[in-house]
Amino acid sequence: MKELVLVTGGTGYIGSHTVVELIESGYEVVIVDNLSNSEASVLDGIERITGTRPALEICDCTDFNQMHAVFEKYGSIRAAIHFAASKAVGESVEKPLMYYRNNLVSLINILELLKEFKSKGFVFSSSCTVYGQPEVLPVTETAAIQPAMSPYGNTKQIGEEIIRDATHAGLPYASIILRYFNPIGAHPSAEIGELPLGVPQNLVPFVTQTAAGIREQLSVFGDDYNTPDGSCIRDYIHVVDLAKAHVIAMQRLLENKSAEAVETFNLGTGNGLSVLDILKTFEKVTGKKLNYKIVGRRAGDIEQVWADPTIANDVLGWKATSTVEETLASAWKWQQKLSAK
Ligand code: UD1
What we know:
With about 350 residues, the protein is of the alpha/beta class. It is about 40% helix and about 15% strand. The protein folds into 2 domains: about 5-185 and about 235-265, Rossmann fold, CATH 3.40.50; about 205-235 and about 270-305 and about 320-340, UDP-galactose 4-epimerase, domain 1 (Alpha-Beta Complex).
């Protein structure tokens, strides 16, 4: 019988790609999503790719009673991957209480329900934001956690602590914390991808929308950083590579292979690329000229961060394999499909 996995935020960007990989690896999936930042039509794309339409419960993870009803309805939820969260750094500064409520109350609810229903595993979406500006690059999982630079970042730090405390207190399940670097790109089929509502905050959706003529001009936030070309450096990872790591984490939990009750892994490529590298590579891959200008720094940006993914490579046997060219091409294919609608 297929094992049933709950995916909160499963109609979102990373969630939907992970649902595809879970289904293709033989899991049964139930998605919980309040559709605050995604659309139910994402299920059509998932179904076209996999031939399976996952169950969707439209429900807010901060509502304990509704979530309890979902666990009761499905009965045998073996594990959960918790993507559902608010993630706009700037908005979190404006609305901190909303961020703490959305990101932390939902987490506590799910941990409590996994315990009540005797599930085996929990996978949490964390972020390289917990490292702030690391002193040593590439950054390893043992690097110091820096004071958070935004309420959003703080919800990831506090979330990790809640998971460690709860899991160490003897819950019936083990947890895996995945620290994402910068996920970009889309499924190669272009059936699913990132669907930013309104003006994109992240670099690559802004790039693709500029190339498509939806945005007139792209702003590069700063060229006076202490980096080779002066723009910020990040570790951009194909969302499908990232999604695959979740399946491996899930298998590890369900097969009791975890070495510790809580394990933490960096999910990145190990390569740092600047904003200008991304723009140049995008232009090369797509043949499109990007209209961009250099503007001032964006408040709260980290100068440079990229992952040391050795532990994920060795322990999970997972490695990001897509090139940045393939990844940017997939983002562009998805944008062209959206623009044609
Ligand atoms: C940020 C958060 C990260 C969070 C993610 C979720 C920080 C340090 N990181 O990632 O924790 O998980 O958002 O959305 O807050 N850029 C431009 N022009 C643009 C947009 C971006 O030059 O129009 C630059 C940024 O200055 C940055 C890079 O592109 O150097 C990547 O930006 P973005 O895609 O927003 O990701 P992060 O800021 O790294």
